[in-house]
Amino acid sequence: MSPYVIRYHDINASPIWARLHQHQRATRHLHMRELFERDPERFARFHLELDGLLLDYSKNRITGRTLELLVELADAADLAGWMARLKGGERVNVSENRAVLHTALRSPRGVPVWCDGRDVSRDVHAVLDRMAAFCRRVRGGDWRGFSGRAITDVVNLGIGGSDLGPLAVSEALAPYASPTLKVHYVSNVDGAHLARTLERLDPQTTLFVVASKSFTTPETLLNAEAARAWFRRAGGEADVARHFVAVSSNAPAVRAFGIDPANMFEFWDWVGGRYSTWSAIGLSLMLAIGPEHFADFLAGGHAMDRHFFSAPFDANMPVILALVGVWYNTFYGAHTHAIMPYDHGLRRFPAHIQQLDMESNGKRVGRYGERLDFDTGPVIWGEEGVNSQHAFFQLLHQGTRLVPSDFIVPMNSHYPVDGQHAVLVANAFAQTEALMRGKTEAEALAELAGLPGEALDMLLPQKLFPGNQPSNTIAIDRLTPYSLGMLLALYEHKVFVQGVIWGINSFDQWGVEYGKQLAARILPQLSEAEPCLRHDASTNGLIQFFRRHHER
Ligand code: F6P
C-alpha cells in the first residue's frame, strides 16, 4: 500500500473524546488532597514497578474512571495496532517511508527482528561487535595516536540526536566511565564550543568521533573541518585516519569527507536521530563506559520494550505516563510538562527528552497530512533538583498555571557525602507532596496565630498554596546503565503512545528543515556589499547591522 494514501485521524470526532471532555468537566473540582484522604489505597492502586523502577502516578488529577476512559481513548486510536506495526518493522514513518526500529537496537543477540524481509538484528550485533572491539583497543591503549601515545580524550562532534542522547547518558553514567579516557561533546557551530574544548586537549592523544546520521548537517561538518585543521597543525594527512572516525548512515559522504570507511560505524535509516543513542551514535558513550556497561544499558532498554509490548494498557508504564500526559494536554489545556531529575548526573536528561518529545510530537498535522484541530505536544522543559526549587518552583506552587511534572529520583547515590542524598530525596518527596496537597487556609491561619488583624489580612493569602498540581514520581534504586536504559526507553515509548493518540507521525521533523534553508540563503548575504532588500524590514535591518558591526 502506498504510504501516501490519504486517511484521516478523526480521534477528536470520536465519542470517547467527547466523553473525556465531559469527564474532565465533571471531575475538575476534585482536589487530590481529598482523593488521598478518601482512598488510603490510592498509592497501591496507582503505582507500577519493574526491575527496581517505580512509577508513582497517584499524585494526578485522576480517578479509576479517568484511566478507564483514557484506555478507551488508546483503543479508539488503535494503539495496539500501531504498537504491532512499530514492532513488526512496518513503515510507520509514512512521510519518509521508513520503518522505525530503535527497539531492534537493544534486542538481544540471536532474536531476529525483521524489516523488509531482513533480520536487522544481525546487522545491529555486527556493528555492536565492531564498536566493542574498537572501544577495547582505544580504552586498552592499543589504538594509538600518530606519535605513539595512547588516546586520552574523545571529542564527539554531532548535534541534536547525534549529541544530546550520548551526552545526557554519558554524564549520567560518569561513575562507570574510564578514569583515563575523557569524553567531550561539541555540538554548536558557535566556534567557542570547539575552541574551548580543544584548548585543553593535545592532538597527539585526541580522537574525534564525527557523529551524523545524514553526514550533511552543516554545524557538524564545519566543526569536523575545524577539528581536522586543528589536528593538521600537529599531525600529517596520513595520520587523520588514527584520529578521526565516523558514525553515519551515509558511507559515500563519510568517504568524501576523507574518513576511511574502515573507521566508520554504520547505522540505518530506520533509526531516527533522537532515538539513536542505542546505535553507533552511542560510540562516544561506549568509549566512556565500556562495552559491558553499554550492553547493560541496552538490556535496560530492552526490558522496558518487553514490558511495553506485553503489559495490558492499564498496567503499562509508558502507556500510563502517556495517557496521563494526554489528560492534561488535551483535556485540561496544559501547555507544558516539566522534568526534574533529582540527580546531578541526570542534569542533561531534560534537554534530551525535550528534543525527543518536542521534535517528535511538536506537530500540527496528522500522519496523513490532515490538520489537527487540537493541541498536541507540550513544551518540555526542566532542570535538576534541588536547584530547580530555588529557581522556578515558586510558580509551580503559587502561580496561575497548571504545570504537570515528572520527578526522577534515585534512592542511592554514587557519591554518598555524609547523608546528603537523604536530604536530596527528602526534598523531592516534599515537593511532590506540597504540590499535591497545597496548604489550606486553616493550616496557614494556625501558623500565623497571634498576628494582628492587618498583618494577617496581608499575609494570609500569601501563605496559601492551592495544591492540586500534578506530578509523577519515577523512583529508581540507583542510576545504573540498566536503570537508565529503562528510563530512556520509558520516555521514548511514552512519546510514541502520545503521537498515536494525537494521530502524529512522531518520527519525521520537517519543521527543522525550513530554518536550515533560510540560514543557507542568508549566509552569503551577510558579506554582500549592496543594500539588503530581499527580506522583511526586520531581517534586512538585522543583516545590515551585522555588516556594519562584524569585524572580518
Ligand atoms: O534537528 C534536526 C535533526 O535532523 C535531528 O533530528 C538530528 O538528530 C540532528 O538534526 C542531527 O542530524 P544528523 O545526525 O544527520 O547530523
TrEMBL record:
Catalytic activity: alpha-D-glucose 6-phosphate = beta-D-fructose 6-phosphate
E.C. number: 5.3.1.9
Record pathway: Carbohydrate degradation; glycolysis; D-glyceraldehyde 3-phosphate and glycerone phosphate from D-glucose: step 2/4; Carbohydrate biosynthesis; gluconeogenesis
Compartments in which it is found: Cytoplasm
GO molecular function: carbohydrate derivative binding; glucose-6-phosphate isomerase activity; monosaccharide binding
Entries under SUPFAM superfamilies matching the protein: SIS domain
Listed GO CC annotations: cytosol
GO biological process, one term: glucose 6-phosphate metabolic process
Swiss-Prot/TrEMBL keywords: Cytoplasm, Gluconeogenesis, Glycolysis, Isomerase
Top-rank lineage group of the source organism: Bacteria
Gene3D superfamilies reported in the protein's UniProt record: 1.10.1390.10, Glucose-6-phosphate isomerase like protein, domain 1 (3.40.50.10490)
Principal location listed in the UniProt entry: cytoplasm
Catalytic site: E359, H390, K516
Pfam assignment, any one: PGI
Coiled coil: none
PANTHER family xrefs: GLUCOSE-6-PHOSPHATE ISOMERASE (PTHR11469)
The family this protein is said to belong to: Belongs to the GPI family.
Role noted for this protein: Catalyzes the reversible isomerization of glucose-6-phosphate to fructose-6-phosphate.
Stated name of the protein: Glucose-6-phosphate isomerase
Organism: Crenobacter luteus
Designated gene of the protein: pgi
